[in-house]
Amino acid sequence: xxxxxxxxxxxxxxxxxxxxxxxxxxxxxxxxxxxxxxxxxxxxxxxxxxxxxxxxxxxxxxxxxxxxxxxxxxxxxxxxxxxxxxxxxxxxxxxxxxxxxxxxxxxxxxxxxxxxxxxxxxxxxxxxxxx
Length: 131
Known about the structure:
Helix content: 10-25%
Oligomer: single chain
Number of helices: 2
Shape: globular
Strand content: 35-45%
Distance between the termini: 26 Å
Largest sheet: 7 strands, antiparallel
């Protein structure tokens, strides 16, 4: 499936609108931006769904329909010690807090995003909370 990348915190990012057809390119793009302050990007699928992806030392993933209707699903960290403290990710110039329960190692984020790029669905290897 083709997904389209949009940087949620930098509208001038030259990669905005890039169509991604394979995991190699997806992983290259996401890894290349980890040196920035944590931020949120969107991966818009051609199937009517998208992922919000937190990019940083840790990240998070939210799965939603493009029409704005529920459910809104957030991947739960496999780390049971994640807790309720928060990590801030920039989105539209605004710090957006995400509780650590939903923050996970970036390699896990890549695995979830890669599965979405391939299938358009939520990754079955993690639990998902409806928010």
